[in-house]
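From the thread on structure requests for the teaching lab: each student submitted one protein with a one-line request. Submission from student K.M.:

"Model DUF2188 domain-containing protein from Microtetraspora fusca, tokens only."
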Amino acid sequence: MTKIRPLPGHPHWSVLRSTGGRLWATRIKPYTLGELAAGAWRTVDADDEETLAAAITDSEAKAASAPRGDQTIGVPAEIEALAALAEGDER
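Reply posted by the TA:
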């Protein structure tokens, strides 16, 4: 993967090109749990910049429709709770 310049209008996304030529974009700041539940994707991919920009715009629009106030993913307590659920422990 090779990092390339951010797409115009999407400075908060890191853009990469795979060795196969596919473009990937990852949002620098994680989405909240609510934004993810609303359908936002932190990483999107496409064959060209126009389609990649559209995927980013779609993800940001879904995130914008989410309720406010949720914590971002990566908080240790959330990880612990998810691990407990995976083991069948409903805390």
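TA comment: Strands lie at 2-4, 13-17, 23-27, 43-46. The chain has a mean pLDDT of 83.
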